[in-house]
Amino acid sequence: MENIKTLSRVIGGLFYYHPSQYETVGLSAVLSLDHTGFTQFDTTIAAISATDPHTLSVWHDELFTGIGEMKAPPWGSVYLDKEAVVFGDSTLHFRQFLQQYGIKFETSHNEPEDQFGLMLMVIASLIEDNNLDAVTELLSKHLLPWAPHYLALLQQAAPAGAYRELAELGQAFIAALAKTFNAEIVPGKIYFNA
Q1: Distance (Å) of CA 176 to CA 40, 97, 171
Q2: Cα 112–157–29 angle (5° rounding)?
Q3: Are 116 and 147 contacting, i.e. CB atoms less than 8 angstroms apart?
């Protein structure tokens, strides 16, 4: 469980934090690792580390923050709500889930809680609290119905390199989480048609 918790926190952070924040949130230390023994993780870390910081920042802004046209928005409600909007009903349901388990976010900007990276970091917090049933619930009800579709879109939208590798790592990781926690990847009704 310790590896899953750490990977949830690190992979979630790579999806959520801007590259300019890597030092502050401790991701720079992870990016300096040469070999962890997790092949897809090592490949992703190498691709991120090899990318020019300015280019990485531009790609992050385009893919994760909505600067320009978003071909793969990272928020669940965009895929699960009929209106395909952020802060939709599925966001409200996830917010209730967070309240039920006493999880609060301090974000620097007004962003919905159902962001892919944030959800992975919530999994790390739940594992830390030894609340494994809540992890299964999060996966089954809040993440797996839309995340495989999102990550497939991200793989198509991202330029070759860092963030395409991260999308592939995300796919492999959520599949491993689903297997570990016996949560089915049952696609929800996807409304976003990119």
Answers
A1: 12, 22, 9
A2: 65
A3: yes
Residue 22 pLDDT exceeds 60 = yes
How far apart, in whole angstroms, are the C-alpha atoms of residue 39 and residue 168?
A: 12
pTM of whole model > 0.85?
yes
Percent of the chain scoring above 90 in pLDDT: 71
Residues 6+ apart with CB under 8 A from 169: 11, 40, 41, 43, 44
Tell me: the pLDDT tens digits for 139-167? 999 999 999 999 999 999 999 999 999 99
Closest-CA residue to 91 (of 68, 116, 70)? 116
CA distance 46 to 48: 6
Are the C-beta atoms of 135 and 6 separated by less than 8 Å?
Answer: no
Measure the CA–CA gap between 156 and 169, rounded to whole angstroms.
14
Q: List phi, psi (to 5°) of 130.
A: 60, 35
Contacts of 145 by beta carbon, 8 Å cutoff, 6+ apart: 76, 80, 186, 187, 188
Rounded to the nearest 5°, which phi and psi values hold at 115?
Answer: -75, 140
Closest CA to 187 of 134, 151, 157: 151
CB of 124 within 8 A of CB of 9?
yes
